[in-house]
Amino acid sequence: MQRHTKVKLTKANREIIKEAIVSEAKRLAQKVYAIAVCSNHVHLVLGYDKRAIGELVRSYKNAAYFALRKNGFAGRVWTRGYDKRYCFNEKSLKDRIDYVLRHD
């Protein structure tokens, strides 16, 4: 049973989230290879970073959440957790970027 109402982001909300994530990546000095903000989830392909993935996810989720709140959004946005996939060569990186760009 779901405890919270499903979130379906509007086009305007998706743009706010995208801008917040790109801004946060600049603040963190992290390379964004690809980003797609969908109606109910986000895809990101990021460059290597020595920080823990959970710390980075938290930073991006918080940046997006606070940007939405600043623009009048109320309620929950994110669920717990995240899916991560690592790229160990140029081909896997290109494949992940292509996958994300197909969702944009």
Description of the structure:
The protein has helices at 11-28, 53-70, 90-103, and strands at 32-37, 42-46. The chain is built from three helices and two strands. It has one domain (11-103). It has a two-stranded antiparallel ribbon with strand order 1-2. α1 (11-28) packs across α2 (53-70). By secondary structure, the protein is mainly α. The mean pLDDT is 92. The protein is globular and about 40 Å long.
Fraction in helix:
40-55%
| Bulk shape | globular
Question: Count of helices?
Answer: 3
* Rg measurement, Å: 14 Å
Q: Which key terms come to mind for this protein?
A:
single chain; 104 residues; mainly alpha; 3 helices; 48% helix
Summarize the structure.
This protein is mainly alpha-helical and 104 residues long. The chain has helices at residues 11-28, 53-70, 90-103; strands at residues 32-37, 42-46.
List the helices and strands and how they pair.
Elements (H helix, E strand, L loop, with lengths): L10 H18 L3 E6 L4 E5 L6 H18 L19 H14 L1
Antiparallel strand pairs: 1-2
